Amino acid sequence: MSVYVFGHRNPDSDSIVGAISIAYLKNQVEDEEYIPACQGEISAETEFILDKFDGKLPLLKTSVAGERVFLVDDSDSLLFQDDIKEATILGIVDHHKLGDLTTNAPLEMWVRPIGCSNSVIYEMYKFYGVEIPKNIAGMMMLAILSDTVIFKSPTCTKVDTKAVKELAQIAEVKDYKALAMKMFIVKSATDGASARSLNTRDYKAFDMNGKKVGINQLEMIDISALDDRIDEIYTDMQSMKEEEGLHTMLVLLTDIMKEGSLLICVSDDLSKVESAFNCKLENNQVWLAGVLSRKKQIVPFLQPLF
Ligand code: MN
Ligand code: MN
To answer: Is the overall model pTM greater than 0.85, yes or no?
Structure first.
């Protein structure tokens, strides 16, 4: 019986590339067949990566009851298929806080507080002594550059920078930062996108002590491209809050050049947001200088207030 490898809902590049890079590695060292999968449509950024390095689109897998699965880039049930608890989890590779998923049998876990799941996977290849194919190396390199915002994110570690440099050599990419900038330009495109598609582009729901908190992040080269659309984004956030039964919905418009995020909030209790980030909201907004990472600079400050 095959094993499906996949990352979180609203898959990002780390989730898609992670499924591909783990499946390849596992297929070299184990007898079972590992199949890269995903839970939804890929982003324009991920499409750029797959095109550039000849990557195949993983299989769409929206139901996993009775299946054997291997997770990458999260371990929180809210971010997986509705029937994930009826699947057998063989392993987890991640770089987030530990989620609520548990297992009946022993499993394999590779979890480290570094910049990208693909940096963990890079170390797994070293551990097993498996050579990384050129095209997979290129994809892993871009996934790491995406997750670490070209090394600017506070989540970025020496493991990540070292991995990128080595992967760039294998992939024969000389100027990996220039290629990453091209990728971020693709990621930054918002023309023609509806408010809802913007608000769900990198949306994650969190269970904060029984209250559901939704956080979306848009990483852009220049967030002023959305200046005229803030009201529309805010109105749609109010609808999403109703539809998803959220206590709080946050949107982070992250400007990777200015190195900070405009936080927009809709909440039953805005004072929680103000005390989490020690700020005063104006028109439900605040500029958070230096904030680039949802997992390291947003979630850990908000969660304790619930
Ligand atoms: Mn991710
Ligand atoms: Mn990641």
So the answer is: yes
